[in-house]
Amino acid sequence: MNSFNRLAMSLILLVSALLIAFFILVLLLSPEPLGSLVVKYGNALRAGPGNSTLNELKRDVTILGLITFVPLMVLLWLEVRRTSRDSIRITKIGSSEASLSMQAVAQSLVYYVDALPGIVRVRPRLTADAKSVSVRLDVETTPDIEVRTKTDEIAQTARMVVEERLGLTLKSLQIHLHHTSFPRLGAVTPLAAKPPAPVQTPTPAASDAAPAGENKTPLSS
Q: What pTM, to 2 d.p., does this model score?
């Protein structure tokens, strides 16, 4: 829902910017049509009820208001609903209901992920709906880690915490790794390099080792 809200707001801002730019260009380059339009609707407003032009203006304004106002209110409601949730339901038995605060989930993730070797700092960002939680972890690590191995380790730990220890449903998990500053060059441990392969010297052929006559066995006298 957060991605949908960002996309919708981007489209609204883009359309608004284009309309404003179009209005400014018309006002600067060709103001006559705009002036006649303003005079037309001004006369309609002064005419009072029953004027056909005024009725058309009311209809156009109503349609434009519905097109713009209703989607904006829906987006605002979705955004407020998403940000106002501070707990997530765990179980419901009969009339009883158990829930867990989002702060407790974040603290558990920080506690267990931060205990992994090579982890310097963990900053979780959580969003939840009625049945699941989405987790984004901004993890700061030492620069000497193996990125793939450490990412798998963080993902397994986060899933274990959310699903097994807390009993929640993990909807999505995003991990963003950041390295701390590299140490000075003198303190860096060089990577182990493979020794160069020995150079093989070609062996001369047997036919070139000695003259043909020397290989013969002499006759006994």
A: 0.48
